[in-house]
Amino acid sequence: MSARTVDVLVVGGGLAGAMAALAAKARGASVLLVRRSPGATALSGGALGVAPDLDALPADPLLGRRSPLESARRLAVRRPSHPYAVLGVHDLEEALGFAGANLSALVEPPDGRPRFLVHVSGGLAECALCLRSQAAGDLRRVRGLAAVIGFSGHLGFDPRLVAAAVERLMAAGGPRAAFAEAAAFTGPGEGALRPVELARALELPGAAEALGAAIRAVLPRGATVALVAPVLGLDPAARVHARVEAAAGLPVAEVVSDPPSVPGLRLDAALLARLAGAGVEVLHGEIAAGSGPGQPVHVGGATFEARAWVLATGRFIGGGLLRNERLVEPLFGLPVLASEVGAGGLTLAGRPPVSLTVRERTAAQPLLAAGVSVDALCRPLDERGAPLHPRLYAAGALIGGHEHAADQTGLGVAILSGWIAGRGAAATGGEG
Amino acid sequence: MPSLHALLYLGWRAVLVEPIKRLFQRGSGLDRFQAAYAEDRLSTTSLVDREIAFEAARCIGCGLCESGCRLLSASPAIRALGLPAAFRLVGRSPGDLAGAHDLLEACQGCAGCRAHCPTGVPMARVLGNLWMKAESSR
């Protein structure tokens, strides 16, 4: 069987893989993306964190917080092993703009300021990009009264908890908050519906409009925005958020979700739709270990040869790293680096993974910052610090040196590294 | 130094009691082992069970599989429990699985969950194995 040749093969279809594929495609390369399933991106709450202002105190005014770009620059100076330091943040603004433009159907474009969104648990998420359905809930912009609206049939969202969290931020310049409960999902058996099912139910004709009307009926006097549970539809094409908003008669915003996350699944669906629209071929399947750039690879009965490869296989959730007796990158056996955050070069990856966590919860966890090390062009490095292959790139959480959840920089790193890796792969893969 | 009394007792068991006992025993060691635990409805762990347990251990309980589960909209029992909750049954003895039998039987192995699993757990295989154990304990 003859192998079909593509310029760039991207392994992994989360945000990093999608950015790499789109960036390579934008440079004129032919791109094939292989993915097994939704990854950590689909588990994200929908807010795309780039870099939090590490110097800000909880009581500091929201308006005074540094921009995500400036925060990323400062983080890169402080943490020499963080991907922002390794890759450089000079391209971050362009990469974020690229991501915003490609996902403009679903994502609110970056405006250079941090957004502050409240989480379903009452926490505060600081992000650079967010879904359009979340944008009206940016506490920095809300004027007047934020009404947190629960749904009587949905027990997974506590409006009282979220309203109390918003109230606590009043001192920092956040809005006033109140809560109310709208009669929704009260039919027989609906009380046990899970977020995914609620989201599907709202896609049906008339359902989103009915929810909007129920919200309108219980709005406290003076409410300027309604914060609701993150269940407003799975399919971006169903436009559930816009329909609810039209019927409610005021801006409506989803709060940031916990997993399983409906906004995360919607983001995942939007990535797939954009890849298809841009002409990136997407195959669902797995790649056997051992192949590499320039060698044939078998995916779902077809054989391909790619001049350049981008690995965006994620970390422990996506399967890019395995915890066996030691940490392993299963596809190529790339050297894995696990070091204390900030202590670059200290290799702990040979140790059993259980020994790479420390009891103190707030301390740096080497296991959670494990990954491959790369050069400034996103090429994985061997133990001596030289690129393993001139046309092999890595992107996203597979790159070590950052705790992508705790740092709140995970999706920012995915966007930046995906963009750099995709452009690099297109340049080297298009030469042959 | 171990106590003399303990050494004498072990010697007495090894030289006299155990050989005489063996003369009157029936069946293989495995049979007797299983008979001894039958009352507690415990069974041995096969190599396949072990393999499946390792695969099931990759579950991180994220719940993405539920978005691909056809049963979720069909059965209130499964809805209340949630598909990832079935993974808490892995490693339980067959006797403990009796209550989950109907739930496990309802799964037709459509594998819609598999395509949604970020960590690649072969869910149909895990649930099929659980069902077989639940069936055997009826």
Low-confidence stretches of chain A: none
Helix proportion range of chain A? 25-40%
Calculate the mean pLDDT score of chain A and round it.
Answer: 91
Q: For this structure, what is the CATH class of the largest domain in chain B?
A: Mainly Alpha
* Radius of gyration of chain A from CA coordinates: 22 Å
Task: Please provide the ordered H/E string of secondary-structure elements of chain B.
Answer: HHHHHHH
Helicity level of chain B, as a percent range?
Answer: 40-55%
Termini separation of chain B comes to: 52 Å
Continuous helix count of chain A: 12
What gap, in angstroms, lies between the N and C termini of chain A? Answer: 22 Å
Number of domains of chain B: 2
Could you describe the 3D structure shown?
The complex is a heterodimer of chains A (432) and B (138). Chain A is built from twelve helices and 17 strands. In chain A, the strands form five sheets. In chain A, strands 1, 2, 12, 13, 14 and 17 form a six-stranded mixed sheet that branches. A four-stranded parallel sheet of chain A has the order 9-8-10-11, sandwiched between helices. Chain A has two domains: 269 residues, FAD/NAD(P)-binding domain, CATH 3.50.50; 117 residues, Rossmann fold (3-Layer(aba) Sandwich). The radius of gyration of chain A is 22 Å and the shape is globular. With 432 residues, chain A is an alpha/beta fold. Helix content of chain A is 29%, strand content 18%. In chain A, helix 1 packs parallel to helix 11. Chain B folds into two domains: 39 residues, no CATH class; 94 residues, Fumarate Reductase Iron-sulfur Protein, Chain B, domain 2 (Orthogonal Bundle). In chain B, 51% of the residues lie in helices and 0% in strands. Chain B contains seven helices and no strands. In chain B, helix 3 packs across helix 7. Chain B is elongated. The mean pLDDT of chain B is 83.
